[in-house]
Amino acid sequence: MSPGKELRTSACPPASSADEGHGPIRARRGLAAVATSLREAPSGVLVTALVVGAGAGLGAIAFRWLIVTFTHLFSGHADYSAAGHASNPRLPWLGPWFVLLAPVVGGLLYGPLVQRFAREARGHGVPEVMFAVAQRGGRIAPRVAVVKSLASALCIGSGGSVGREGPIVQIGSALGSSIGQALRLTENRLRILVACGAAGGIAATFNAPLAGVFFAMELILRDFTAESFGAVVLASVTASVVGRAALGDTAFLQLPAFHVSHPAEYLLYAGLGVLAGAAGVGFTRVLYLVEDLCDWAWRGPEWLRPAAGGLVLGGLLLALPQMYGVGYPVLENAIGGRYLIGFLLLLLAGKALATSLTIGIGGSGGVFAPSLFMGAMAGSAYGIVAHHLAPGLATSPGAYGLVGMGAVFAGAARAPITAVIIMFELTGEYSIILPLMLAIVLATVVSRVLSGDTIYTLKLRRRGVDLDAHEPVNPLATTPVGEVMEPVPPSLPDTTALEEAARLLVTSDHGVLPVTASDGRYRGTVTARAAAEALTDGDGRPATIGELAELPTPVIAHDALADALHVLVTTQGTGVPVLADDRTAIVGWITHQTILGALRTQDAGHG
């Protein structure tokens, strides 16, 4: 007797047996129909992209709230990087020395969390998403979103000198992947949803929908198609709307008074682009050098590494508190001309070291914001020098700081389109576009000359993964299903009685048979397991097999064997029908054995 029947009382008359049997079946069929529609309909990817975008926007809001909360908890300030050597109001007797302990306590919290639940949440996040898209068909474990949110917020809030864009990219991507896996989407659409999550995260975090789109297309998908571009744009716009509703609609940075007074000033911006490209490559080298040094020095358990290394990081924060957290107030002060050139260069070197140390000890956070920070320091210092040497040309040193932000990021990540778009959206000022484009292009060229890898791909190459390597031809991707499919097994008319259908399923070779309507049109498949479960429902069981028919992901005769294999591993039973182009007639049958036989035949032919 089911639990529902045991709990009924005489005051609540029992539902009819037919209702008991048909209700769950109708619900299952309804959910299956929705999932099938999202998988098959051309607009399905747009609907799921909208959902992922909304989720990424909400995730960005929650993540920023977590960062603010933990920053208040650990430092007593909204942003300690702007507080100087102030003390924590909750621990005034410690004075500024509390920053020695904040990274240690934070490491004791997020170190075990990452080690126990999601080790891929360690580090800056974007390379892991790139790897998932390129090598794992877009599959990311759902728990990554939760662990990454908590770990990165704890790391940044306790003083980790990293950015929030890498975590929100990984959080949004994990959300997109989880939704796609729940709907059993094909790998191509799963990758698109991962990119949608990344775009939505960037768009909501920086109020930059265009930058989110090009970040996802240029760095995550690394490919442009009409379907993927439309879905990513929709997700980015949706996330921006959600983010603006909660965080406001203002430019991230305020541009100082700016104009190019003379065409010769473009030569100064060209020089900045060359230096920024070298700085981006230098940051990449320092990051992985410090990470190697941390690997060499640490011999204890990995879960304790962030706490032990946090003591070293705390010492750096005590000497240079401007390195605490993301540091956007410090960046704005530099662009506003509030620092001298010597201090700008100190902040530049300090950020490279602090970010590298945070990542090296096992911290969780992005490198995008640190590259913007270093670009602002380098560009502002360059602008001050240019203003002193040629005051008639370089009239606004702060503008060089803004251009330097985009150029250093381009030199580190080698993503020129994203760099141009995001700097335009962060400032909301079109007049900066021409010098910005010039500096970013030159920085990208210099980066390519100096290094074969970017700050993201180098992490993967050190693991033996080359995203640009040409893969050998996969016979599963080149052989159409129609060349190897088997004959269609006997079909079950949808009016077949349940008992008769169960007998035929028991004696079939596949444990699953196709179901057809009276006019011969394909209605779906039914498995022996479904028939067996229906037989145990008592009086509420369906009368005919048509009520149990489900529609698996369609396999068309011209599909590649790789697509058919993906459907097989996500479908009950040992085979699926092969359909004609109109998807109403069955023309063949495909099983695991069919695919193995095709591979064996091809191997024998090559031998």
Structure description:
By secondary structure, the protein is mostly helical. It contains 24 helices and six strands. The chain has helices at 3-6, 17-40, 44-75, 102-117, 126-135, 143-157, 165-182, 187-206, 209-221, 226-247, 265-297, 305-319, 328-335, 341-360, 368-389, 397-413, 416-427, 433-450, 457-461, 475-478, 498-507, 528-535, 561-569, 592-606; strands at 492-493, 512-516, 522-527, 555-556, 575-579, 586-591. The strands form two sheets. Strands 1-2-3 form a three-stranded mixed beta sheet. A three-stranded mixed beta sheet has the order 4-5-6. β1 (492-493), α21 and β2 form a beta-alpha-beta unit. α2 (17-40) packs across α3 (44-75) and α3 packs parallel to α10. The chain is elongated. 49% of the residues are buried. Mean pLDDT is 83; it is low at 1-22. Keywords: CBS domain, Chloride, Chloride channel, Ion channel, Ion transport, Membrane, Transmembrane, Transmembrane helix, Transport. Residues 1-23 are annotated as: Disordered. It is found in: Membrane. It comes from Actinoallomurus iriomotensis. InterPro entries: CBS_dom, CBS_dom_sf, Cl-channel_core, ClC, ClC-type_chloride_channel.
